[in-house]
Amino acid sequence: MTDPLPGMRRDLEYFPIQYRGEQLVLIKDRLGLVQEGKALPLSLFQMMVLFDGTRSLIDLQTLLMRQGGGVLVGSEEIKGLLARLDESFLLDSERFREARDKVVADFAREPVRSCSHSGNGYPADPDELRRRLDEILSSGSSVSDPGGIRAVVSPHIDLAVGKSGYANAYNSLKGASPSRIIVLGIGHRMADRLFCLTEKDFQTPLGVVRSDKSAVQRLRAVAPEVISEDDFAHRSEHSIEFQILFLQHIFPENSFTIVPILCGSIQSCVPQYRRSAYLESAGAFTDLIRSILLEDSERTLLIAGVDLSHIGPKFGHELDASKLEPQARTHDRNLLEAMCRMDAECFWDESAKVEDRYNVCGFSALACLLETLPPCKGKLLGYECWHEEQTRSAVSFASMVFKDNTGGQRSEVRGRSKEKRREGKA
Length: 426
Prior knowledge:
Layout: E1 13-19, E2 22-28, E3 39-41, H1 42-48, H2 57-67, H3 75-87, H4 94-109, E4 112-113, H5 126-137, E5 149-154, H6 163-171, E6 180-186, E7 195-197, E8 201-204, E9 207-209, H7 213-222, H8 238-250, E10 257-263, H9 266-269, H10 275-295, E11 300-305, E12 310-311, H11 321-341, H12 344-353, H13 363-372, E13 376-388, E14 393-404, H14 410-425
Parallel strand pairs: 4-8, 5-11, 6-10, 6-11
Antiparallel strand pairs: 1-2, 2-3, 5-14, 7-10, 8-9, 12-14, 13-14
Helix pairs in contact: 7-10, 10-13, 10-14, 11-12, 12-13
């Protein structure tokens, strides 16, 4: 009676909906354990919030009695509710953890990472997908000279929403011929480690892209303490998947390999929100990425699939996005200008100054990019802010290109690398 009861899972997503005049809460489970389309009455969901993993049966009875105006809720009724929630995999219980571990283990054994958004985020039919990608690419700027390109920043927002951003980013690569592409994505649910790697090949309706398993193994070995123990975060993450669609479309089949890297939450993994603390943890990892980029600098490319500010009630703000947009745009602009100058200190200072108030989800991947590129100059290709009217929220995104401005002199890069590592340990 006094032991804490299992709490609600913290990895689920909840969306308020209206159905036949009733207010419901739709549940989304990236593990796939909760029945797809499962929705709960708002009153039941509000009761479930009380199950936080710290309260006993007596605690819950007391809280429910207060909320119910003094009406006692029987212990058997609460136990019955918990049993039904557990049966639906809504509780962080032993039953759930066993099922989760099986899903993770099954994915680990798969040699190929199958596409997770095919038929939802984009067409599953290859010909229809090619037509969609052609349509997107035709909406952006004309092709520029790909010579000297070291990196490209692209959105990872819904393809239809971000089409001009995707077009500007990938039109800049037409005519290039990379043999290896390091792809930085965002692990939206990663909170335990800075990076997640996988040796899996990636499959989409356009075919299979091979991973550079040797490069992944080298990265895993150099800094295991900052890398997730498994590759499960890649299973349903779209930030890399969307980039691979365009890479497959603009480059010949089987002409390149990928090094897929998901970047997790810096705030959750680094003791202090400062660049020096980040380098103390991630410096060996970012140094090796830089070395890999330089091994065949003319044929190795870096792509970062990121979005910028997330504002409005959907993302935890009390104010509507329309009220926050001017400040968020200023913040985005300051970050992007620092990126163009390759000024990592200014980039970090700008984020720390606002305490990441605007939820820049791409910050971790962009921070990694700044530490890995050789001396470059960035150019902003486009910037937009998309509003989701029904939630009064908004997401901003940009496209950028980085070109070598030193002729790729390795001695300069080595000096820059050592200097940054010294700064990180200061």
